[in-house]
Amino acid sequence: MPDTQTDFTTIRQPIELARGLPNAHYTDPAMHAAERDALFMTGWSGLAVAAQVSEPGDALPLDFLGVPLLLLRDRQGQVRVFQNICRHRGMILVSEPRRIEGAIRCPYHSWCYGTDGRLVATPHVGGPGQNAHDAIRKDELGLIEVRSHIWRDIVWIDMSGRAAPFEEVHAGLIARWADFDAPLSHGGPDSSFTLEVAANWKLAVENYCESYHLPWVHPGLNAYSRLEDHYHIEAQGQYSGQGTLVYRQIAGAAGQRFPDFPDLPAKWDTAAEYAAVYPNVLLGVHRDHTFAILLQPVAQDRTIEHIHLYYAAPDADEALKADNARLWKAVFEEDIFVVEGMQRGRHAPGFDGGRFSPAMDGPTHLFHDWVAGRMDSRRAAE
């Protein structure tokens, strides 16, 4: 790990005294690499959504901070994650999204794997016409599987394989949103989009956490769900965000609305919540739809946001879903200029990480505290 000279004690102070992460955490490629190891490779991170491989045999190659992965729904319908490499010479197996009709065949020497990861064929491995060799044991050379878990249709991965069970790590949020523990229906192609942001991924998390910016960045939302209608969501070391006591459902020209999730308590009639699950998943829940934003850190100054909207029923009105996606996309696009503006600001040498508003920045301070804690633990282990 590079010696960045970050004094994490100043970041982990009570919010009244704390300063934010210094510039290097947003601008330095070496720091970006160090955070990759400390924040993404030692616990549960968001990779994709299961709806992206909706049918058995569907395969989606993905880059996870430089690691080639393959998201796959096997013949039995189970979603699995493998390293996207052949066990022979490390060749990339799947280069484009596709349906695996038979086996996964390596394009280099035609070693073949089942959708469950088993090595099933090694042509000519023992010489021309000899498809076996005593030294090549198929049962020991299956695809390298990455530990995964699905919650709210998100495929969460533990690259280390050593994290505590997902249900244990995130028991608090699972319990908090138990009212929404119902099947989710992905809205389809119109309910999935990406945004490219010229900023460090952490700035997207920080902005999402807090409602402080609503009056100035989201005047449309603030017109009916005012700053004073919001409250903090704070779970140290796990997640943080905001909630609102005023949620207004979208309606179509004929007054049609999305169906609600079943058996919701009355509090959700007018409430909604938004939580950043550390490190890189941003979630929102409403009485009639939910969304997930998966942040893909591409570089220290570039992030791709993958957005997916979900509904309580698969037959939700298509035109209304399209309208809802346009509305949310417009809201998320409103955030881009401030996130990118903060990124440019991190090149100012006099900026010391900034101060937090004790009344308004609690969720963001918790995120900084989590980053600093993980980085400090990583440094201590070096």
From TrEMBL:
Any coiled-coil regions, as ranges: none
Cross-referenced Pfam families: Rieske, Ring_hydroxyl_A
First and last residue of the signal peptide: none
Keyword Iron-sulfur set for record: yes
Cofactor(s) the record lists: Fe cation
UniProt keywords, alphabetically: 2Fe-2S, Iron, Iron-sulfur, Metal-binding, Oxidoreductase
Rieske domain: residues covered: 46-157
Record has Hydrolase as a keyword: no
Name of protein: Rieske 2Fe-2S domain-containing protein
Provenance organism: Pseudooceanicola pacificus
